Request: fold
Amino acid sequence: QVQLAESGGGLVQAGGSLRLSCAMSGYTFNWYVMGWFRQAPGKEREFVAAISRSGDNTHYQDSVKGRFTISRDNAKNTVHLEMNSLKPEDTAVYYCAADHSVIIQTTAREYDYWGQGTRVTVSS
Reply:
């Protein structure tokens, strides 16, 4: 049973930074593409970023390109999301997800396992 646990959320002022982390247990981490999604109040869950199994390839939602960086440490079974220049519209619950796939996918339904989420609030 794969388990994902996010950490690092919180309250930050606009322009600030946060680093989210997600730890996987229960299975072989480098068999999974890892993704971050977010869900703002009243909105659907949306793709933020994803990273290939090796870490060589990444993909971002357009609105976070240049501000967010996804990375992974396969030795520590963790994936991170470094978020800089945060904006109020980045406010959401952020979810870590794992996809047992060989390609990066951006659709939530393609991901097999999900964490409980960590809340990020950006004040103006």
Summary: The chain is about 0% helix and 50% strand. The chain has a mean pLDDT of 96. The longest strand covers residues 18-25. The two ends are 40 Å apart (CA to CA).
